[in-house]
Specification:
6-stranded mixed beta sheet; 5-stranded mixed beta sheet; D-Maltodextrin-Binding Protein, domain 2; 20% strand; 290 residues; 39% helix; 2 domains; alpha/beta
Length: 290
């Protein structure tokens, strides 16, 4: 073969390997096969974009969601998380009436189901991210002289509860039902306690405030409501496991959210190790823990 033919062939052999597709680590083909568990911020937001994510959540989530919102905003520059806190029953009603939102976090599966019935949340999309427990609280001065749970039935005690439509209100009634079946309290315990109720509140924070201000002798709230601030104003009577009621917190993205990717990312934050750790720091029982 002549030199004039050999030279072009040798050049061709040198060029072909460089142009062939690569499948090693770090190559374009290898990267395409790796799918991140959660979409990075750059995949959801664009530089300079300003977005407001609206999260409607049970009042008992006020403090911990404020912290989680700050964490979320730090991960997604340009995103502002706006919260609307109220009783879960009120939020479900607002959603049914068409109130705009991106995420709904309830303190009861009952109102999660209500959001499905109204068409605002896709069936099967709810995820439980935490649970909670009940506790009896009373002003530090203890004007009623409470020493044990049985004292809640003392005549003349001023007790404040959440309305039964409010998740914590129904949980409180469930606790009283359990106690009335316990020989240590007696069958009349529930009725005698309810005779002492001076007001039924539409959310747990309103209830807490009345006890903090000593406008009531006692109340039943979630353990997480006894924040460091509240702990300086109230004392507590713990409810044993056999009588306590565990509250579940389901969350879901709103079906017609204008920001579905961000809504899903917020839900994932609650379920991720970082979110679960923050929930635990605020006294909630993370998913999967006893």
């Amino acid at each position: 073969m002549s030199p004039e033919v050999i030279a072009p062939l040798m050049l061709l052999f040198l060029i072909l390997p460089a142009c062939a597709p690569q499948t090693g680590v770090g190559s374009p083909t290898a990267v395409q096969t790796q799918t991140p568990a959660v979409a990075p911020a750059s995949a959801i937001t664009t530089p300079g974009q300003r977005v407001t994510l609206t999260v409607v959540a049970a009042a008992s989530l006020t403090e911990v969601f404020a912290e989680l919102g700050r964490q979320f905003e730090a991960s997604y520059p340009g995103v502002r998380v706006e919260f609307s806190f109220a009783g879960s029953q009120q939020l479900a009603q607002q959603l049914a009436a068409g109130a705009p939102a991106d995420v709904f976090a309830s303190a009861s599966q009952k109102y999660a189901d209500s959001a499905i019935a109204s068409g605002r949340v896709e069936k099967g999309s709810w995820k439980t991210f935490a649970t909670n427990r009940l506790v009896v609280i009373y002003p530090k001065a203890n004007p009623a002289g409470l020493k044990q749970l049985g004292d809640l039935s003392k005549p003349g005690l001023k007790l404040v509860l959440a309305a039964k439509e409010v998740p914590v209100g129904q949980y409180s009634l469930d606790f009283l039902d359990k106690a009335s079946k316990d020989p240590g309290f007696g069958p009349a315990f529930r009725d005698n306690v309810l005779k002492n109720v001076v007001s039924y509140e539409d959310n747990v924070k309103s209830l807490l405030t009345k006890v903090v201000l000593a406008e009531a002798d006692a109340g039943i709230v979630y353990t997480t409501d006894v924040t460091p601030y509240a702990a300086g104003k109230v004392s507590r009577l713990d409810i044993p496991d056999t009588l306590n009621v565990i509250a579940s917190y389901p969350v879901a993205a709103i079906r017609d959210s204008p920001h579905p990717d961000l809504a899903s990312a917020f839900v994932e934050l609650l379920l991720a190790p970082a979110g679960q750790r923050i929930l635990a720091e605020y006294g909630f029982i993370p998913t999967g823990q006893p």
